[in-house]
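Regression test case RT-17, inverse folding.

Input:
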């Protein structure tokens, strides 16, 4: 797969020309990786130039959106197919971020596209004021994937909407306003959710978070407690650990104590409305919890009258490999589940799934969502569920994801600036540090240098964590082991280049 200074075809032939002179010099003695082959031929780009796009966005989009543009030279993405994307010059990229963990089964998957096209020829839109079969059929299919009594669905359009509704349901059902979240958790940025999202970079200087309390984040790598036996992952932290074995976890004990402390001192007479938890924290940096933490936390919340809410916006639909839902890996069944992103493979749709007993509380007043359960959305969602089954996406996530984590772990073992590798399936994080001993986050400018090189080499990766020092690897669930080999080679080149530059 690797050929010295020989560049791949199908768009990657232009790769060498895209490198800066400095990058070319740094890589001149290094073998450059070929992108794995792809038979798909993209259309020729015929849209506005990059300069025109910059002008239009600067004039007509909120300034706040400009800061989200990735890379020093932002990409003009033109077309996507499965795990691949092409820019306006025809250069091909391997997408390891899936539109921020949203493209689940592949960009423009033919079956999903066909389902959307067929439905759009029949009925684009109506609402639940009428009966239409796509909604009925979809929610039946979706609830068959849910355990226990999680059999009632409310369709919405985004993860923020879903979490907002879940919070309302928890408060209505329990009669208690107080909600608990985890530090580093991300659940959206609506006015209600801003206080639940415990990352200050997402907070405006406005009153928020009424009735919301944050407990210590149970992070085995960067938290107060944790170590090499804590995580349910193919790769454990190399931090020392007090636990005698993987079957006991003193870190979990300590983090549950902190939760009980919040209930004891912050909530009204120890009562609580509910607790929100991501099965693996996404925006916070792909953070996994000690193995038994979630079981014990859910038990504690229920003992205090609360409901347990699993935010599966990023971890659902087979992404963690071993299970269809991330919470199943923790051995728990929540009372409310929120889902979005991968549910529609990029189509704007989301859902809240709960029990009949909790769902009936919403009938106390009128609650309506115009676009939730849209016929086209339901057709797309149904096709996504079919593709996950037919293409064996969950099994692929388990196989390719485990291989990916194991290969990244080799980078951790070889480089002092790779502090931690973690995750399950294709929900993966690689945390970059100044050095392993201090665990000091790699400086933002240094992180960007490595990130820019991966882009120049045809690899698109996300980044996250409070310090922005975690590579977020959450690709479409159709990638192959050959794609992993290519990615590892790119990471190695990018890190080597950075280290040579730092020494100079």
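Golden output:
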């Amino acid at each position: 797969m690797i050929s010295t200074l020989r560049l791949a075809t199908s768009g990657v032939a232009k790769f060498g020309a895209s490198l800066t002179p400095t990058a070319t010099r740094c890589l001149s003695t290094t073998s450059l990786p070929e992108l794995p082959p792809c038979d798909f031929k993209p259309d020729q780009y015929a849209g506005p130039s990059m300069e025109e796009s910059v002008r239009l966005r600067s004039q007509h989009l909120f300034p706040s959106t400009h800061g989200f543009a990735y890379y020093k030279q932002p990409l003009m993405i033109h077309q996507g197919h499965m795990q691949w994307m092409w820019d306006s010059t025809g250069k091909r990229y391997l997408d390891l971020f899936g539109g921020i963990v949203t493209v689940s089964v592949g960009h423009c998957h033919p079956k999903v596209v066909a389902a959307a096209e067929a439905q759009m020829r029949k009925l684009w839109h109506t609402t639940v004021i009428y009966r239409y079969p796509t909604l009925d059929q979809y929610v039946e299919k979706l609830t068959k994937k849910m355990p226990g009594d999680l059999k009632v669905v409310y369709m919405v359009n985004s993860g923020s909407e879903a979490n907002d509704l879940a919070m309302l349901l928890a408060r209505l059902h329990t009669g208690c306003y107080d909600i608990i979240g985890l530090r580093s958790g991300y659940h959206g940025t609506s006015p209600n959710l801003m206080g639940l999202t415990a990352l200050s970079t997402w907070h405006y200087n406005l009153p928020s978070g009424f009735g919301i309390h944050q407990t210590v984040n149970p992070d085995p790598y960067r938290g107060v407690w944790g170590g090499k036996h804590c995580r349910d992952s193919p790769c454990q932290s190399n931090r020392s650990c007090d636990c005698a074995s993987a079957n006991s976890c003193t870190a979990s004990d300590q983090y549950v104590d902190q939760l009980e402390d919040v209930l004891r001192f912050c909530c009204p007479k120890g009562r609580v409305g509910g607790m929100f938890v991501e099965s693996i924290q996404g925006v916070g940096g792909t953070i996994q919890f000690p193995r038994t933490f979630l079981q014990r936390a859910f038990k504690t919340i229920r003992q205090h009258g609360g409901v347990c809410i699993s935010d599966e916006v990023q971890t659902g639909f087979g992404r963690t490999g071993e299970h269809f839902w991330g919470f199943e890996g923790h051995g728990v069944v929540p009372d409310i589940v929120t889902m979005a992103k991968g549910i529609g493979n990029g189509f704007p749709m989301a859902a809240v799934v709960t029990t009949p007993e909790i769902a009936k509380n919403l009938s106390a007043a009128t609650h309506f969502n115009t676009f939730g359960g849209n016929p086209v959305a339901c057709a797309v969602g149904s096709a996504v569920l079919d593709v996950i089954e037919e293409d064996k996406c969950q099994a692929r996530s388990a196989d390719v994801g485990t291989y990916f984590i194991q290969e990244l772990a080799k980078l951790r073992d070889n480089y002092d600036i790779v502090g931690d590798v973690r995750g399950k399936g294709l929900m993966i994080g690689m945390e970059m540090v100044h050095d392993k001993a201090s665990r000091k986050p790699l400086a933002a400018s240094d992180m960007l240098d490595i990130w820019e090189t991966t882009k120049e080499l045809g690899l698109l990766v996300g980044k996250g964590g409070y310090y922005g020092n975690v590579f977020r690897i959450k690709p479409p669930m159709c990638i192959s082991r050959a794609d992993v080999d290519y990615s590892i080679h790119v990471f190695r080149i990018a890190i080597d280049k950075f280290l040579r530059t730092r020494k100079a």
